[in-house]
Amino acid sequence: MLDQILNSNLIILAISIILITSILSVQFSVRINAPSLIFFISLGMIVGGELLGLVSFDDPAIAQLIGMMALVIILFDGGMKTNWQTIRPVAFPALSLATIGVFITSIILGAAAKMIFDFSWPEALLMGAIVGSTDAAAVFAMLQGRNITKRLEATLEAESGANDPMAVFLTTSFIAMITAEGNGIIALIWDFFWQMGIALLLGLFIGKLGSKALYRITLSSSGLYPLLAISFAFFAFSVSELANASGLLAVYVSAIVIGNSGLKQRNAILRFNEGFTWIAQIGLFFILGLIVIPSDLFSIPIILQGLLLSVILMLAARPIAVFISVAGMKFSLKEKVFLSWAGLRGAVPIVLALFPMLAGLEYSQLYFNIIFFIVLTSVVIQGSTMQFAANKLGLVTSDDAIPLHTMDLLSVGKKDLEIVEYFINDKHIVTGKSIKQIELPDKANIILIIRHGETIPPTAETVLQKEDILYILVPDDEMEILNKKLAANSPSNGEG
What we know:
By secondary structure, this protein is α+β, with helices and mostly antiparallel strands. The protein contains 21 helices and 5 strands. The chain has helices at about 1-30, 35-45, 60-80, 85, 90-115, 120-130, 135-145, 150-160, 165-180, 185-215, 225-240, 245-260, 265-290, 295, 300-325, 335-340, 345-350, 355-360, 365-390, 435-440, 480-485; strands at about 405-410, 415-425, 445-450, 455, 470-475. α5 packs across α6 and α11 (about 225-240) crosses α13. The longest helix is centred in the middle third of the chain and has 32 residues, at about 185-215. The model is unreliable at about 400-405 and about 490-495 (pLDDT under 50).
């Protein structure tokens, strides 16, 4: 009994040390401009069996389950933060990159794998499919806080959030071919449209259902709203997968719907999601690091073969896929070059590399090692040079205008009142108008204005200026009206 308690305490101690080390490594990675996932993976490799031997873990089924749950959390957070008005102008090129781009990348890389390895065509194309998609976690993390032009940023975020289903579909399809479980090309095409179409419909429906629930249901504790929101993410994933549709696509679509709807406790939900996403990323990459066998991964053949495929991916497969996918879509040559270079690989390819292991394929360990090495080179080389590339190509913006957003600060008793915070810039319709000209909802009141660090007592004659911060007391049922009154100008009025 005492031994079991001691073991439990040691496990809890180990988890706490891992979390503290991982979180501190995030700050270090920001300072040296390196992707933080490298530190999480490295930590898993160090404490794993071959090095320190503190943790022994080699179960691909559990790793795949943890990986998919982590991807649900990461995609939900990214979708919640996605402004539909921002990605709508780039929805078509992003969708093209997420489908045609992934397919072309997979085919080119598969052809390269056929020449490098002793693979059959289905086996070679499987390797291409596994690494065909960009990674939402890596892209979201590397774009955060950068001053890359909004159009490119929106395109990359939308692509990375939407291209995982295509990679999953291609991976499972090629595995079915290898194991002789496929049903022919016609069935494959039907399966593709079923997976994507049903996932889209379910994502829209569950997103609407979730947004209505989060807006209309009054919960006894504000801490329950984030839990309810993330529950809808897992609900969307599981229902879609049970319907043989793409669960990841359903999660991303439902998150966009929920994130662009009126919500109670929006800031509490976003803050919870952000913290939960970091936990998911740390856990995911740490587990993946545990599975790696360093002596196999860093052997001379794997390094040479992995480097060759990485070079082909970064300098040939991804650029060709980008230039074909966005042809005729008004992207400049420099923008296409940057889109090509910013196609980061990350968690998704490594999680997909577990699928051959679960299927018992002959080259499953080779798939995993090569894909793992490709991901490492992608995040180290491309991730650390993304800002440099944007600067050199002149694709940065100096626009420091603070976008409009709402932050729930507190709930007032049982009256369904919220104090919300709005940041105003010169693109919003209220800039330059007095408070009495805005015609706020009947029960909404501006209670404080912060201007250049100074407090301004609001009066009817107070004129709102760029970068003013407004604190407004408003009932939940007037939140949507308030959002419209303080909205940004429409695209026809100058905002693209």
